[in-house]
UniProtKB/TrEMBL annotation:
GO-annotated molecular function: oxidoreductase activity
Protein name: Aldo/keto reductase
One Pfam family per UniProt: Aldo_ket_red
Residues covered by the NADP-dependent oxidoreductase domain: 16-315
Organism of origin: Paenibacillus mucilaginosus 3016
InterPro entries: AKR, AKR2_Oxidoreductase, NAD(P)_OxRdtase_dom_sf, NADP_OxRdtase_dom
CDD domains from the UniProt entry: AKR_AKR11C1
Length: 327
C-alpha cells in the first residue's frame, strides 16, 4: 500500500481508502457481516483511513466502523461528516449547540475520544461564507474532540472559497472520469494551500464499472433509484449528475481504458491516483470482493500521456455539457 500526506497535517493515509455510504444504507441490500469482513480485509491490506457520515444509515456506518476498528484508534484514521441530519439551509444547524451535539453523537457511535477529520457535509455556499460554523469547529479542535476539519463540497466555487479558511485541511470532492473540472483550477490551488483532496464517487455510482445497461434497475431504497434525477439531494451525487442512460452510453465509449488494466473500475481509479494533487480515492463497497477489486487499482498500469489527453478531450467534448446541477 502506498501512503500520501493529507495536506499540511501529520496524517499519512492510504492512497486507496474507503467510503462507507454503501454499507450504511441507500445503496440497496447490505449485510453487516459482509461489511465487517470487508473492513477487516481492507485493514489487513494496509488501508488506514475510512470516510463516513452521521447520516449513512442514520449512524449505522459509524457503528460498523467502531466494531471494526476497536483497539486500533491510533492506527486507523476516521473521517466523518455532519449537518445533513438537519436543515442544511438553516443557520441554526451550524450553531455551536447543534454542531457540538452532532460531534458528541458521532463520537459515541464511533466509540472514540477524537475524530481525525470532521467535515461539513455539502453545506450551501452562503453557510460557508457566514463563517460561524468554522468558529465552532475551531473550538472543538481546541478541546481535542477533533484533530482536523474539512469540507465536503459540491462545486469548484465552494472549494475555492474553503481554501481561504485557515483551519480547513481537507476538501472532499466528486472527481472521476465524468467529473474532471476540479483538476483544472481547484486541485492546484489546494496543493498550494496545503489542503488535502479526498476523491469521492470515483466510479460515478457504478457507471464506470461498465457493468450497467440501459435496462439496469435498482432497488427502491437505493439512491440510484430514488435520487436518479436529484429528487432528494444534489443530482451530482448520483451518476455524477448524468442522466442514467446517457451515462451508460458514455461508459461504453470508455471501455478501452480497461485494456491491460484488468477492469474498467480499476482503470478509472488508477486515472484518479495519477493526479499528484489527490490524497486518496475513497470508493465504496458492500463486500470483500469489491474491497479486493478496488485495492488492485493502485497497481494498475499507468496511463500514457496520449491516453490522458484522449480522456481530457472526451470529457470536454462528450461529457461536460451533459452534467446536471452545479459543479
Amino acid at each position: 500500500m502506498n501512503y500520501r500526506q493529507l495536506g499540511h497535517t501529520e496524517l499519512r493515509v492510504s492512497e486507496v481508502s474507503f467510503g462507507t455510504w454503501a454499507i450504511g444504507g441507500s445503496w440497496g441490500q447490505t449485510s453487516d457481516e459482509e461489511a465487517l469482513r470487508g473492513l477487516q480485509r481492507a485493514m489487513d491490506e494496509g488501508v488506514n483511513f475510512f470516510d463516513t457520515a452521521d447520516v449513512y444509515g442514520s449512524g449505522h456506518a459509524e457503528e460498523l466502523l467502531a466494531k471494526a476498528t476497536r483497539g486500533q484508534e491510533d492506527r486507523i484514521h476516521i473521517a466523518t461528516k455532519f449537518c445533513r441530519a438537519g436543515d442544511i439551509h438553516d443557520p441554526a444547524t451550524y450553531s455551536e449547540e447543534q454542531v457540538r451535539s452532532y460531534c458528541e453523537n458521532s463520537l459515541k457511535r464511533l466509540q472514540r475520544e477524537r475524530i481525525d477529520l470532521y467535515q461539513i457535509h455539502c453545506p450551501p455556499l452562503a453557510i460557508l461564507k457566514d463563517g460561524t460554523v468554522f468558529e465552532v469547529l475551531d473550538k472543538l479542535q481546541q478541546e481535542g474532540k477533533i484533530r482536523h476539519y474539512g469540507v465536503s463540497v459540491e462545486t469548484v466555487e465552494e472549494g475555492l472559497f474553503c481554501l481561504g479558511v485557515p483551519g480547513v485541511k481537507a476538501l472532499q470532492v466528486i472527481f472521476n472520469l465524468f467529473r474532471q473540472k476540479p483538476a483544472e483550477e481547484l486541485f492546484p490551488a489546494a496543493r498550494e494551500a496545503g489542503v488535502g483532496i479526498l476523491a469521492r464517487l470515483p466510479l460515478a455510482s457504478g457507471l464506470l464499472t461498465g457493468k450497467f445497461t440501459e435496462e439496469t434497475t435498482f432497488e427502491a431504497d437505493d439512491h440510484r433509484s430514488f435520487n436518479a434525477n436529484g429528487e432528494h439531494f444534489n443530482v451530482g451525487e448520483t451518476f455524477a449528475g448524468l442522466p442514467f442512460t446517457t451515462g451508460v452510453k458514455l461508459s461504453r465509449e470508455l471501455a478501452w481504458i480497461a485494456e491491460g488494466r484488468e477492469s474498467m473500475a480499476q482503470a478509472a481509479m488508477r486515472w484518479i491516483l495519477e493526479d499528484a494533487n489527490i490524497t486518496c480515492v475513497i470508493p465504496g463497497f458492500k463486500n470483500v470482493r469489491q474491497v479486493e477489486d478496488n485495492l488492485r487499482a493502485a497497481g494498475a498500469r499507468p496511463f500514457t500521456a496520449e491516453e490522458l489527453e484522449r480522456l481530457r478531450s472526451f470529457y470536454r467534448e462528450s461529457v461536460a455539457s451533459q452534467i446536471r446541477g452545479p459543479y
